[in-house]
Known about the structure:
Elements: H1 2-30, H2 39-52, H3 71-74, H4 88-100, H5 142-152, H6 155-168, H7 175-186, H8 188-194, H9 200-219, H10 224-239, H11 249-258, H12 264-288, H13 290-303, H14 313-317, H15 320-329, E1 331-332, E2 337-338, H16 341-364, H17 372-395, H18 410-424, H19 427-457
Antiparallel strand pairs: 1-2
Helix pairs in contact: 1-5, 1-7, 1-19, 2-4, 4-5, 6-7, 6-9, 6-18, 7-18, 7-19, 9-10, 9-11, 9-17, 10-12, 11-12, 11-17, 12-13, 15-16, 16-18, 17-18
Amino acid sequence: xxxxxxxxxxxxxxxxxxxxxxxxxxxxxxxxxxxxxxxxxxxxxxxxxxxxxxxxxxxxxxxxxxxxxxxxxxxxxxxxxxxxxxxxxxxxxxxxxxxxxxxxxxxxxxxxxxxxxxxxxxxxxxxxxxxxxxxxxxxxxxxxxxxxxxxxxxxxxxxxxxxxxxxxxxxxxxxxxxxxxxxxxxxxxxxxxxxxxxxxxxxxxxxxxxxxxxxxxxxxxxxxxxxxxxxxxxxxxxxxxxxxxxxxxxxxxxxxxxxxxxxxxxxxxxxxxxxxxxxxxxxxxxxxxxxxxxxxxxxxxxxxxxxxxxxxxxxxxxxxxxxxxxxxxxxxxxxxxxxxxxxxxxxxxxxxxxxxxxxxxxxxxxxxxxxxxxxxxxxxxxxxxxxxxxxxxxxxxxxxxxxxxxxxxxxxxxxxxxxxxxxxxxxxxxxxxxxxxxxxxxxxxxxxxxxxxxxxxxx
Length: 459
């Protein structure tokens, strides 16, 4: 009976992955070229990395006007300061296409649409396109579409890690893994972000694997050192993929400490096994490439300085709505294509209720002799706290309240939002929550895609 239930659950998980791929491919195809946040700059980074086999040089162009009026800046690689590894998968595909089908790769960024600045809702495309018919937009640049589709596959890593962590937290049935994985897979912003050229996709995949291995350290004491070494390699790779990954590092170190909190001699070894490979990878990158050292210096000197007007209550509170509602759940294009906020508010409200139940259950179970599950929940909640704190801190320097910056902890976000329900509901109640949550998120995604995004671009 148990074997049959496991098999059924696995088939449901495979179905979730298949639906995710269908959604991601649809976003990749239906979002016109360059009509995703910063995609031109990310693509230029990929192109320069593929051609030079080195991180890109600092461009001479500086922003002088709003995006929709500043073509010289918008058509430059203004993401040059990011670490290079996050762009490596796309650069490999770019290089392959450059050899096999060079005509498929766009070589320049098209002109800006002059009507965008005056009315971005009526004229949602920031760039001009020869044709805005579904497949004709890719006629002379389908290489970018190939890159988009390829990168979207990395979302499967995040979904798989979420599923595994959910199953670990729900050993009896495993349906917590299904509902958490489906919630992530059907999140509109997650599929949208994964389906365009950028470094977020690899960064989120690496972060998801760090969470999975960190949790396995709590449940598999015989493999602690091997898992710690694997986490160390992942930490190094993640830090070389995108700066937002830095929020994940304390989670990994906490995982080492939680293996035996009262015996520092025991957990110092796995902690060392984490730190050493990460340091070697990061040091090798920055010592090898002068461009990387210049980029890191620029980041500290120019990107992380706190704005004088940021330390006010009004400034801090205006970050909440876009960060946790609009740009976390469903906001497309260059932040100008909005899904009715009711969908996002319902989804956020459901998560908040689930998170509050989880916190209540942690408090009630704090004195139980079996502490493994509480260690896991501690790792998830600390990851969420660090990411939220880090993104808020970044916004004190650069006002970019984009929900995708929280996606390195999306696995923790999903599991933590449902774990509490699984402590108080009957088997029947869990099934109802699973069906309701996945049905709502899938309907949310399909509505956003078919009734908001498609009509905006293809009238």
